[in-house]
Amino acid sequence: MNKLLMLTIVAMAISCNTQGKKNENQVDKTDDIAGSQSNAPFIWEAANIYFLLTDRFNNADPSNDVNFDRTLETAKLRGFEGGDLKGITQKINEGYFTDLGINAIWMTPVVEQIHGATNEGTGNTYGYHGYWTKDWTAIDPNYGTKEDLKELVEAAHKKGIRILLDAVINHTGPVTEKDPVWPADWVRNDTPCTYQDFESTVTCTLVKNLPDIRTESNDAVELPPQLVEKWKAEGRYEKEIVELDEFFKRTGHPRAPRFYIMKWLTDYIIEYGIDGYRVDTVKHTEAYVWKEFKEVTDYAFAEFKKNNPEKVLDDNDFYLVGEVYNYGISNGQYFDFGNKKVNYFDNAFQSLINFEFKWNAKDQDYETLFSSYHKLLSTDLKDYGTLNYLTSHDDGQPFDAKREKLFETANKLLLSPGTSQVYYGDESARSLIIEGTEGDATLRSFMNWEDIKSNENTQKILAHWQKLGQFRANHPAVGAGIHQMISEKPYYFSRSFSNDDYNDSVVIGINVPKGEKSIDVSKSFKNGEKLHDSYSDSSAEVIDGHVLIDSKFEFVLLEKK
Questions:
Q1: For the CA atoms of the chain, what is the radius of gyration?
Q2: How confident is the model at residue 261 (pLDDT cuts 50, 70, 90)?
Q3: How far apart are CA 458 and CA 141, in angstroms?
Q4: 20 to 30 Å CA-CA from 112: which of 66, 161, 261, 485?
Q5: Is the full-model pTM beyond 0.90?
Q6: Count of alpha carbons within 13 angstroms of residue 215, beta-carbon side
Q7: Residue 87 CA to its chain's centroid (Å)
Q8: Is the dihedral of CA 345, 257, 230, 238 positive or negative?
């Protein structure tokens, strides 16, 4: 490994307890993670989440690259590329995510996708991205097996990393020659959304040939014949029927389409112990659906913990983060459809994806960005969270499309109040402009592992992301603490966080002078305390409310030693 990269990897500590205290059933799952902050609780509001396309991250098993005769030539980057669950597990075990300070991984859906390809003017496209469901109860063999998912979750939990899967309740996969349409009492396929108001955004078909689940219906429906036929051929029809009967008897819900899907999605909680769901296309489904979803996911998570006390990580609730397209943190708890405002936080989502963050990061300096986000999270969104991102899989206007502001991207994303979402390749300058692609395919190239291995500039960029990421993971104060500016020029600020008997304080400097730096830490640390600069790996004692740090870097990450 490059010497510079080696020098920059500092120890990381992630606790398995949100309250700083394990309950009697909890066991330590982070024995192989060392660091000065071993008692740091895991808090979703301060988490550092890594978002990846399962098919585009790492291929550890080429034997599963082709299934269901998916052999048609596709448009560029619109077919399966080989990434799989084993590939993610491999990188977990290698410590890639730990070195990057990642404490949660969100991957695109792993359920079985339509077998055929669509051709809507862009060339053939397969469901490589995971959002074209054929069977919610099965894992697509292109991604791997149920055993692969089990091993992934267990490997992640051992490293103190939570796992988010991606939940799609709004629609099935498109109709192809290999994939018949679902019954008419399950889906609508002839009412296109016009997005003029609440009704024309919710009770409609999102895009052409993407059958919309009748989530508003409470009418009982039979299973789609294609699922019955499939399950019988696979020898599991009776088992699935028994489980469905038990679910509907326990919940009292009608056998309506949305409740079938909720049952299938909660199976992944009970069976594998996943920690949360990122929920797709939230505003295209009735708001009450998500309250129902929260109820069943909470129940499933409690059942997993009861049945697997040795696998309990902490006292966190099951995490639900919603994709309400175009929601921004400045809207507070409400999304405005024009003729109706909806509160998706109300007994449903703990956090929403913040589509506004990239614009705020572009238009605002560090202090304006940090202080405004702290204020919003302390007032309008108190007790809730926001998931900030600068790059994503379907946002055609990323913060830094040409990858020219890689250090600024890390600084603003990882040091802003709120939960951070690192999109795979943000940390390695993976190109977002791929010649010959159309639409969002340009955002979804395969992870650039070769650059990380051999490109010195990529290694320097990665080193910066690692330092900031690990510091963030070690200190809940960074994402969930009280923000206070210490000085404007040079720019220093503090963050402080308290939770029961756990207290965390840090002081951070951005674009500060190289060489000797006298830093006012009087409001965060006491005279005589030993502080550690995680960025330069140097230490100093607090004297007269100041510490003296002598480093060649323009960055300071101060923590109590």
A1: 24
A2: very high
A3: 33
A4: 161
A5: yes
A6: 27
A7: 18
A8: positive
- Going through 228-293 in order, the beta strands assigned E by DSSP cover 276-279
The three-point CA angle 531-534-540 to 5° equals: 25
How far apart, in whole angstroms, are the C-alpha atoms of residue 525 and residue 541? 10
Choose among 229, 275, 266, 228: nearest CA to 247. 266
**Measured between alpha carbons, how far is 503 from 400 in angstroms, rounded to an integer?**
35
- pLDDT of amino acid 46: 98
Cβ distance 321 to 353 under 8 Å? yes
CA dist 193 and 32 (Å) reads: 50
Q: Mind listing the pLDDT tens digit for each residue in 36-76?
A: 345 899 999 999 999 999 999 999 999 999 999 999 999 99
Report the DSSP beta bridge partners of residue 176. Answer: 179
Q: What is the 3-state secondary structure (H, E, C) of 537-556?
A: CEEEECECCEEEEEECCCEE
Q: Judge residue 208's burial from the number of C-beta atoms within 10 Å of its C-beta, 0-12 exposed, 13-18 middle, 19 or more buried.
A: exposed
Q: pLDDT (tens digit, 9 = 90+) per residue, 491-527?
A: 999 999 999 899 999 999 999 999 999 999 999 999 9
**What b/e readout covers 106-130, taking b as 16+ CB neighbours within 10 angstroms?**
bbbbbbbbbbbbbeeeebbbbbbbb
Which residues share a beta bridge with 509? 492, 556
Give the H/E segment covering residue 113. strand 111-113
The CA distance from 33 to 393, in Å, is 30
Say whether domain 42-447 belongs to CATH 3.40.140.10: no
Round to whole Å and give the CA distance between 138 and 76.
27
DSSP state of 192: B
Query: What average pLDDT is seen over the chain?
Result: 93
Q: Given pLDDT bands bounded at 50, 70 and 90, which one contains residue 308?
A: very high
The dihedral through the CA atoms of 555, 364, 433, 90 has a sign that is positive
Give the pairing type, strands 48-52 and 419-423: parallel
The DSSP secondary-structure symbol of 443 reads G
Structure tokens at 481: 């603490």
Residue 452: closest CA among 100, 103, 155:
100
- How far is the C-alpha of 49 from the C-alpha of 423, rounded, in Å? 9
CA 472, CA 478: separation in Å to the nearest integer? 6
- Cis ω for the linkage preceding 490 (within 30 of 0): yes
In degrees rounded to 5, what are phi and psi of residue 290? -75, -25
Collapse the DSSP code of 118 into the 3-class scheme (helix H, G, I; strand E, B; otherwise coil) and give the result. Answer: strand
Report the run of H or E that residue 138 belongs to, with start and end.
Answer: strand 133-139
Return the amino acid letter for 260: Y
Look up tokens 């920690």; give the residue: 275
> CA 46, CA 387: separation in Å to the nearest integer?
10
Concatenating the DSSP letter of every residue in 51-66 gives EE-GGGS--S-GGGS-
Closest by Cα among 475, 508, 477, 506 to 492: 508
Question: What whole-number distance in Å separates Cα of residue 452 and Cα of residue 356?
Answer: 30
pLDDT of 121? 75
Mapping DSSP to helix (H, G, I), strand (E, B) and coil, where does residue 378 land? helix
- DSSP code for 174: P
